[in-house]
Request: fold
Amino acid sequence: MKTSEDFQAAAEEKRIYDAGIEEGAKKLTPEKIRSVFNELMQTEGGARLEAYTKACVHCGLCSDACHHYLSNDRDPRFSPAGKVKQTIIEIVSRKGKVDADFMKRACEIAFTECNLCRRCMIYCPFGIDVAYLMLFVRRACHQLGVVPQYIQDTAHSHAATYNQMWVRDDEWIDTLQWQEDEARDEIPDLRIPIEKEGADIFYSVIGPEPKFRAQLIYQMAVIMHAAGVDWTMPASQGWDNSDMCMYTGDSEMTARLKKIHFEAALRLKTKRIVMGECGHAFRSVYDVGNRLLGWKMPPLQMIHAISFYSEIIEQGRLKIAEKFDRPVTFHDPCNIVRGRGLHETARYVINQVCTTFIELEPNREHNYCCGAGGGVINCGPPFKNKRVQSNRVKADQLAAAKKKGAEVVIAPCHNCHGGLEDIIRHYELGLELKFLGDILYECIQKE
Amino acid sequence: MQQRESWDWTAGTREIGDFGAWRTTYGYMEEPHVSEDGEKIAAIVRAEEEAYTVCVNGRPWENTFDKVWYLRFTPDHRPVALVSDTAMWTVAIDGTSWQNWYEFVWNTRFANTASHVTIAAQKELRYFVVTDDTPWQNEFFSLNHLIVSPDGRNAAAVVQNTTFPEADIGKFQEGCFTVAVNGEAWPEQYVNAWELDFSGDGRHVAAEIRTSLYDYTIAVDGKTWKKRFPCVWAPRFHPADNSVTAPVKIPGGWSLARNEEIIWNRGYKQLWHHMYSPDGSHIAAVAAPEFGKWTIVEDDRAWQARFNEVVTDAVYSPDGNRIACLGKSNEKWYIAVDDRIWDVALDMAWQPVFSPDGSHVAAMAEKNGSYTIIIDGKPIGQEFTAAWQPVFSPDGTRILVKGVLPEDQGGKYCRQVLEVERVAS
Reply:
């Protein structure tokens, strides 16, 4: 059995250099750290922070809920309570009197050792939201200027372009027109309606779609066409519903991003927003950003693509020509399943479109996170190996489904795709990864 | 510019361009657009395989293009679209292309009452603005948030004037963005700049900026307010004295600042989209006095009316004595005027329009898939399958309604001039 010294030595060996953390920490002073934490604890922490930090009795029930803990040989420092104890509890008890080295470690824990997946919260007897506590640490890291380089760069992209991939305004429109052209080779009258005022649906996507996965826009256009949906996408900023600022702790930018997103939909006089297959963006639009702006709920009805697919299938608007005949399994994304309860909706769609469905175990709200969520994958190359090794339990889960016959993993979330791709490759699982839209596009009657 | 007085204000209904017939002529046609005076209806159509054009009142432009998008009408009623041939783009007005072509053009901008046309353009990955076929002298690494002055002669945009390597977060935070006015960049650079505003005379520009990741403020003609705030929203110029106001975040909420000093006493959960009455004597804004409850605030006094989802499209009457807006509660849209909510629940509504003397208000609305016009709270009784913003006559006695009649009434596009007193009473 490993001792705490063994774990400590292993941690030292794995210490990762990140320019954002290291350079940011050089500018810290004890006074600045104390001042930022005390200010945040008074203005933003309040009763919620106090209740969570005081309620934890270190019972350890959260430990087995955490894929980091399970994948790191049950190293207690990776347990949710352990991460809380190493960061915010220490900061609160010391009234912010911590040093730059402490902040470097706290930053690494909060940004790369917790996916904010909230699995532990459902096992905690007190319902302590560890994701909230880690986000509080991240908020302080933002205020202190100690944030991993790559996710900070993504936050900069959001601020400069209102999208997360440095996509310029013209590149966005050009991509839509390019995908429309491509799709017209298949369906001559297909249209990606740009700036169509008064359309029923405002369809929004995340930055990586025009940048790396433009075929998803093509596929959704075909689905919309087949279902006879009156839809549009904006030529203006506000097309990107994603939000890495929510994960860097830049709440002001999160609010700004959601404002422009909702206002694009309102300007075009659309009745509701359908979001592409992304989890964190859903969390930002449906739960976090809207409330930062003073909206109790989104100002327009907004639904995730899963709900949209379910709706148009149920209404008979989308016909399945031939079911997908390879055995599939389904990864429940944290933000739309634990966060929104779309697990049965997703299963309805899968069962309508696929012949053989094999459940991952555990599943639904008990599913393990992909390991990429919460902005962890956005912390970039320095943390990639750590991220993949920190989710061995996911590989085991996928391998078990493969053993039962699964060939394809469906994951209706971009970050999940990023994380699962890395896991499938690293652990040589030989599984294929798809969005639900990939399968729908393949199986529906297109004309 | 053709003055509104010279439009056809003869009461009655007139069909335009036999829309019902020509929309079946083309195998592919996009949604139509209508000129403000209602005399023209136009749509992007496919003229032949792989060739697109614009059909206006049933007559296609002589020229066809590989692509056509963003068809609109200028304030002087000319159809304008962005067009492409052999992978190069420009503007076509009334079917005639500008002489200069670019790798991409977008963001068509008009002044409300002027004939100038402005676009953003990109060539060889350099970004600039073009007004009436004349490009800016200077080009930038990126460009967005384009606006034009009230007379349409001046343009301003947020530009990136300094390049930085990928993922160089330090360089970014030094400030690489600024504002360019008619191609001339302000010397000061910011971490970010967002929404801009021109003064009424077009001589000054204000910008919403961030000087570090944490410090937000306003810059006017390149000079930054000394005070910093945790957040700000779009600035506006006073129409008479050119002072600048902006919603700013303060401890406990949002308030309004003029030239960096807080001028309202109350704090709001949210405060944005502020606007001046035409003479500048009043300021109104959309606000949430409490979390999740939205209304209009004028001169720091909130209406009694509350909406639980959103308030948008606020507008002052020309005399500055009245305010109208749209509000949404429980998934239905409503029109509100002077703190009174009209008793008509709608699926969608458009910005209300005041008569010149402010005595009447009209709004376009959609309900159960049909469009209509509501005047002073009362629908006009005619439904359309598509409709456009109504316009009051200069004397306010008549209103121009533009819409496509339902199929069972012929499916034609028509302009109707109605007697306001008759439909509003």
